[in-house]
Amino acid sequence: MNEALRWAALAAFALQQFDEASQEEQARTGKSAVELLDSALEQSGANEQLAATLREKFLAMGNTPETI
Amino acid sequence: MKRILSFLLILVLVIPLAGFQSSCPGRKQDAQQAARSAEEQFAAYTDRVSEYIGRGLSLTDFLVTGKTIKPENGTVIVEVLDRVNAANKSLVTGAQQFVRVEDGKRILRFTESDRLELEKLANATEAAARDALNSPALLRIDPTARSQLKALITPAKIAATRLVSLIKRAKNITVVNPAAIEIELSYERSIEMGSLSCVRLTTI
Question: Cα-flanking dihedrals φ and ψ of residue B70, to 5°?
Answer without folding.
Answer: -70, 145
